[in-house]
Amino acid sequence: MTVATSDARLVAEAVEGLIAALVRQRRAGRDPEPGTLSTFQALMLATLADQGPARLGSVADVLGTTDATASRTLDALEARGLAERRPDPDDARCVIVLSTDAGAAEVRRRRRRLTALAARALRGLSEDEAHRVAASLAELRALLDR
């Protein structure tokens, strides 16, 4: 079974629109603490907090970026005290990267804010409608991750 190009285009536009809406929400002042991290910095920090210590190259692979971009992003997180590099005990040529306690706390804070944003978006929907939206987004993520 082939997905129609028009369906694929609708999904692509919806994903793009969702990302734009999330960025607008963050910058519109509706959130009392919009934060200072870029979207990519926040994604890297969440990856570090969720996956624990890892080699920088592995983190770059998970995020779908180059080692150089991952390194620059990590520089910014380190400057804020949210992440750190440590020597790799198994290979002196490599470093292990991880979130600090402050970084893990920032991830929790950002997720609480995102949950509040989602709750605002779902307000007014029936329980079934809210479940359907949540299930559809979870399914789309699973499809995109495979």
Please explain how this structure is put together.
This protein has six helices and three strands, in the order H-H-E-H-H-E-E-H-H. The chain has 146 residues and is mainly alpha-helical. Strands 1-3-2 form a three-stranded antiparallel sheet. The two termini are 18 Å apart.
SSE layout and pairings?
Layout: H1 5-27, H2 39-51, E1 54-55, H3 56-63, H4 67-79, E2 83-87, E3 95-99, H5 101-122, H6 127-145
Antiparallel strand pairs: 1-3, 2-3
Helix pairs in contact: 2-4, 3-4
What is the CA–CA distance across the termini? Answer: 18 Å
The share of residues in extended strands comes to: 5-15%
Main sheet summary: 3 strands, antiparallel
Structural category is mainly alpha
Mean pLDDT: 88
Write down the CATH topology of the largest domain: Arc Repressor Mutant, subunit A
* Integer-rounded radius of gyration: 18 Å
CATH class of the largest domain reads Mainly Alpha
Domains (count)? 2
The SSE string, one letter per element, is HHEHHEEHH
Walk across the major sheet and give the strand order. Answer: 1-3-2
Shape label: globular
Stretches where pLDDT falls below 50 for ≥5 residues?
Answer: none
Q: How many beta-strand segments?
A: 3
Using the 3D structure, state the CATH architecture of the largest domain. Orthogonal Bundle
Tell me the name of the CATH homologous superfamily of the largest domain: Winged helix-like DNA-binding domain superfamily/Winged helix DNA-binding domain
Helicity level: 55-70%
Counted by DSSP, the helix tally is 6
Summary tags:
146 residues; mainly alpha; Arc Repressor Mutant, subunit A; 2 domains; three-stranded antiparallel sheet; 3 strands; globular
